[in-house]
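Quick log. Single chain, no ligands specified.
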Amino acid sequence: MKVLWCSLAAIAIHASVGLTDNENRNILAVTSPAWLANVPTPTQGAVVTQYPKDDDIKTGTLKEGTYPIDLNKYPKPLKLPPTDHPEVQEALKHIDWSKVPQIEPRKIKNYIVDTSGYDSKSDPDCWWTASTCKKPKLSYIPEDIYACPQPGQWGLNYDDGPLRIWSHDEEKKKWQEPRFYNYMVEHGKQKATLFYIGSNVITYPEAAQRALSDGHTICAHTWSHKQMTTLTNEEIVAEMYWTHKAIKEVLGITPKCWRPPYGDVDDRVRSIVWQMGMSTIIWDQDSNDWNLYGTPARGKVAPETIDKHFQDWISKRVNKQDNLHGHITLQHENSNSTVSMAERWLPKVQEAFDVMPIHKCLNDPYPYWEQSWAYPTVDNPSPPLNAQDPTSPQKPGGSSGSSSTQSGQQQSVGSTTVSTTSGAEPYLRTFALYAAMITLTLGLFA
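-> predicted structure:
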């Protein structure tokens, strides 16, 4: 039996500050995504295969079309993908549907999810849209990550990238990446967590590769940015399958993290995505930059309104009124409006907070299944190159070719070596090791 990162890292870190209660949850064991084993990975030299050295991170330009992806192998960008594709059908076979609650897909009313008629007080489905619930009613699903544990920490993150401006107007195109990625390099080589839309990854792979090479952490943000609770089970799998395939083909990594668009998640969605290998990350502060003039949401909020949010957050921190825990603040890289806002406030946030990617504040160095990736954490700011998760079982020769399922069956996760990053890191630990680690850290399961 094996367990996921969230049932270890969140126990050891979040519990100490009261952010989650995963130590009292019987987290469902899952295995690394076998349904990605045959996805091709980037050609040699196209993208980094381990966390980069700071000396190698530099500003620069990008030329579109230098790393072409065959779009015919994918669904239409930003459209709900079909569920009858053979690859989706194969992914569906890897879900234990007895662990997925029978919750009817939600309805859309006036362009938003309709919460009328739902009992948000008892909140039987832990539906975030209706109640901001982050602790699943199902005890075998870990709680959502929504804040950094220590006061003063700012888990920097941006949704909806990588940003490409589809225009022949050069004045408009200057806002597309790598503009903001260059900006972060210029401001202390700042690293962030980037929640990528799969469609954007395949239509602008060069920008995604640049972000990974800059040391940013990449997480999934679905294929078409739909409200996930409104989709069928099969549609949820299709959304996440194509997103993961795009990220793996372009970047050679398999993220263990995702964020639901609009925060729209319930226990049905959580159960499916958890079994596909991902922990759910929400936020505790919303900048509302998505509602600015000029954004894809056709927002109506003036920049001054967003400025006020940042001013208040910084003021509370400076005046020592913000001492409960750190923050994960919702921001976007989806338009000139949001990029401009991000550029305006990043230096000021850096002055008031300890700014870092989300996984760094969680002390989790392994955001991907691939074993060659180890990121800096608060406790270990200098991870070794070619690092491997020391708790992951290894086959002789360093391959992560298989991992045991909960029932003891063997499940293939790819046969190539770690250096090519096409094998998947066993995201799970053996039950004996799990119990030992918990005993050492918290005195549980002794």
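The first helix runs from residue 6 to 12.
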